[in-house]
Amino acid sequence: MASRIRIRAQLKGGECEVKALMRHPMETGLRKDQLGETIPARFIETVTVTHNENIVLEAHWGAAVSANPFLGMQFEGGSVDDIVKVSWRDNQGETGEGETRIRQG
Amino acid sequence: MKNKQFNGMARRTFLRMSSLFALATALPAQVRAMATRPTSVFEATGVEAVFSQLGATPTRSEGIIFSVPDIAENGAVVPVKIEIDASILPDVSKLYVLVEKNPNPLAAVFGVPKTTRPYIETRVKVAQTCELYAVAEAGGQFFMTSKETKVTLGGCGG
Amino acid sequence: MKVRWAGGITSLVLVWLAGWTAAETDGVFDEYRAMFGDDNPAVFVIDEGEELWFTRAGPKSATLEQCDLGLGPGIVQGAYAQLPRYFEDVNLVQDLEARLEHCMVTQQGRSSETIHARPYSLRGDLGTEMEALVAWVAEQSRGLPIAPGQSHPEERSAYVLGESLFFFRAGPHDFSCATCHGQEGKRIRLQSLPDLTDHSGAAAAYATWPAYRISQGIVRTMGWRMRDCFRQQRMPELVMGSEASVALQTYLAVNAAGAKMAAPGLKR
Description:
The structure holds three protein chains of three kinds. Chain A contains no helices and eight strands. Chain A is an all-beta fold. In chain A, the strands form two sheets. Chain A has a four-stranded mixed β-sheet, with no helix packed on it. Chain A has a four-stranded antiparallel β-sheet with strand order 4-3-6-7, with no helix packed on it. In chain A, strand 1 and strand 2 (about 15-20) form a beta hairpin. Chain A is elongated and about 50 Å long. The two termini of chain A are about 30 Å apart. Chain C has helices at about 30-35, 40-55, 95-110, 110-115, 130-140, 155-165, 175-180, 200-205, 220-230, 245-255; strands at about 85, 90-95, 185-190, 190, 210-215, 220, 265. The chains are: A mainly beta, B alpha+beta, C mainly alpha. The interface of A and B includes residues 28, 46, 74 and 89 of A.
């Protein structure tokens, strides 16, 4: 399975800009498939961004975040080659994780 | 302050404990470290109900800069961006995105530690043309701004 | 181009419109489209396609690495920009989907029936094998000029057939492709429709398919796009990789020739 998170972390001024795309259907539980069967709710509930093991963002999401979710955030500090990690957990208990090294923007 | 773990000592202690616990259970530390999900706020129907679950109707503030498109080509994916002008609104610890006419208006809440800029970008589903709200929590108080997004269906639909 | 400044705090919103067809950019949705930047979820599908190319499958437990997409066995880079083209081994003009099917059958030993059972995603799917492979192969032609084969007589007759199909009115609505895409300045609701009989309209459209369709959360192929237009015209189902589908794509590719590929694009 290819990585299910794409992350970019760039230093700009004194801040690190993080952009992440996650591979996830974000099903609301309200849609029906072609046969008329309800597609069960399946969405990311929690997302965490860490910088060198320190949490820099914690988010709780509902099913109203779009499919293949995008997250942009910025934190102070950070140096080139530091590790930025993004991880998620969905309502069915599935998890995803990806990391990247900070680059000079 | 509803969730102290996002700020100061309480949060650090909580995280340290969580990390130890995570090691013991072989789960990623960050999953364990999650603050409690505000389930009742997510389940609230209607913006007023969300505010009542939060405990206060937010005060309108110029300190919240909220970018949403005036008109969206498709409601399935509407980009939103929240920034805070800290000179007007200092110590923001949480940012909320609400979509007025969705079955459950609360789309997402972001906990922002002190070293993180109160700034987020994401994309949300907007069921129909309505008001979108950006709510900021600072020092236990709530502030907001809102903006309407018109939702269209491009081309032949689907 | 309307650029939004947010209270002087933020820098200019990065504008990247390469994935959007120029003909569709009529102003109304500029702000909406600019907010996406260059973050296209198609990246996941491209990765999955690359992985599938190198994955053993079928009764012969073979990968697709020896598949000849027109530039020689295993050569993927630049192949999409030169499709559809004539393939001597099958004596047919094929688009990418028909060619991939051919390789799955001959090299992996799979049946056409299975491949056609569900070539394109249905609601709730994250993507199909065909969509992923097409996304990756097309991405390997990014920046290269569209140059479909037109030297072989079969390739030229595919163009002629495609052109006549494009203008062929039929079905309960008496529609043709040209009804919506044959004149400048047409639109459905707020969306401008490209004139595909014209080079610039065809180029803007062809160069950006396959594309991530944000309304569906799926990468859609050019073959799917042809089939969907047929569906909306209430015509019989256009079969993936069929003579008619390949001919229509040949017509569009030739009209678009010379423009640079920029797929997978990002569309409504």
